[in-house]
Amino acid sequence: MNAQPAISIIGAPTDIGAGDRGASMGPEALRVANIVTTLEGQGLEVIDRGNLSGPANPWQPPVDGYRHLTEVVTWNRLVHEAVHAELVQGRFPILLGGDHCLGLGSISAVARHCREAKKKLRILWLDAHADFNTNILTPSGNLHGMPVACLCGKGPKELVEIGGHVPAISPKWIRQIGIRSVDAGEKRFVHEMDLEVFDMRYIDEMGMRHAMELALATLDVNTHLHVSFDVDFLDPDYAPGVGTTVMGGPTYREAQLCMEMIADTGRMGSLDVMELNPALDVRNRTAEVAVDLIGSLFGKSTLMRK
């Protein structure tokens, strides 16, 4: 990655995979919180590509364990093509969600790009949830609880085949951080698939620094680092504006350290910012915290670091 990547912002205003309405307003809330000027203030060239336009949320019950499968497939294909197009041009895509089902389209595009460019891929999944459900395991049918499983080839054919390679990724490429809510059946599946998870107990015992050192270990010049940042990663005291709050998440300072350590690698090449729900927020506070943390991902720090 270049020291100063040219950034493309892509909005995906949908709550198609979520259990609450409102994440569709996330991209606009992040813009209101000055994501563009924050990044430009760090000397980065930023183009806002505007919002993708996909099907409306029909708000229907699940069919065969999936809610809104057809619409979720359409949105993820749109995201996949948009993210891949930016990577082909050598730009740094930031996807503004929208709910986290869109991580499937985004990460499958990054994986496709890495195959084409003969690069290794490392994915950091910053989230309160493992998002490793299937239609058999899910209590809700909401597809925002399934993108990691789909990326690993476990899901409906229409979703796992986005990107043209099944599975899109190996579970070995993912590091999940901040996890503290996993459904009963999902827990066994995460164990079977041998996902590397730094849950909140691990972070409590070992500290965020140690967790991040392990999550970022063995990155080299030929590794593309993708960060998928679900805003519910943060403790709800700092980020109330999400649909699925879970108490006991990282503090603001722990999250800052996490972002600064990612920035220090110089390897980040793409980013998702997901699940911000302004309808549940307080005066856009969660969007402002998210933008502040995104600034740190791009090297904002208190002092000049040696």
UniProtKB/TrEMBL annotation:
Establish whether keyword Hydrolase is in the entry.
yes
Decide whether keyword Lipid metabolism is in the record.
no
According to its UniProt record, in which pathway does this protein act?
Answer: Nitrogen metabolism; urea cycle; L-ornithine and urea from L-arginine: step 1/1
Protein name (database record) = Arginase
Needed co-factor(s): Mn(2+)
Which Gene Ontology molecular-function terms are recorded?
arginase activity
Q: What is the lineage of its organism?
A: Bacteria, Pseudomonadati, Pseudomonadota, Betaproteobacteria, Burkholderiales
Q: Tell me its EC number(s), please.
A: 3.5.3.1
Entry cofactor note text? Answer: Binds 2 manganese ions per subunit.
Q: Which catalytic reaction applies to this protein?
A: L-arginine + H2O = urea + L-ornithine
Q: Name one Pfam family in it.
A: Arginase
- Tell me the NCBIfam families matching this sequence: rocF_arginase (TIGR01229)
- Protein source organism: Piscinibacter gummiphilus
Q: Which gene encodes it?
A: rocF
Record family assignment: Belongs to the arginase family.
